[in-house]
Every structure is written in C-alpha cells, then in structure tokens.
Amino acid sequence: MNTQPRSGEDGPVPFRCNRFFCVGNKWYFTTREGFDSGPFASRQRAEVGLKRFLHVVEMLPEERRLH
C-alpha cells in the first residue's frame, strides 16, 4: 500500500485499499461509491478499465460527481 501523500494533499495519509479483486479467473475493480466493474480477462485490463472510468468521471460537471 502506498504510504506517501498524493500530490496536493496535506495531513496524514488516509487508509486506502486495493481497488482490484479477482473472482475465479476474472478481474474486477471497485469504486469509492461501491460500484464493481468487470469482469476483465486480466488485472491489467481491469486497470485500463478503471483509468477509463476515472477519465469519464473527470469529464462530468462537478455537481454530477459522486465523490
């Protein structure tokens, strides 16, 4: 787990858990809102899926974002 603060964050590092999990041989990611996405064929593909999800969230107007 990363114990360094993220860029622009002050104060103690909050607990962060792994967003990726495997069920059988399929990979998934989970969001802060509790949404699970998958299945993906590999962890690498799940990581790409998460990056795409976060990119879409960044494009939403601030008032539409859930986090």
UniProtKB/TrEMBL annotation:
All copies of the DUF6316 domain together span 7-58
Q: One matching Pfam family, short form?
A: DUF6316
- This protein's superkingdom? Bacteria
Spell out the InterPro entries in the cross-references.
DUF6316 (IPR045630)
Name under which the protein is recorded? DUF6316 domain-containing protein
Taxonomic source organism: Marinobacter persicus
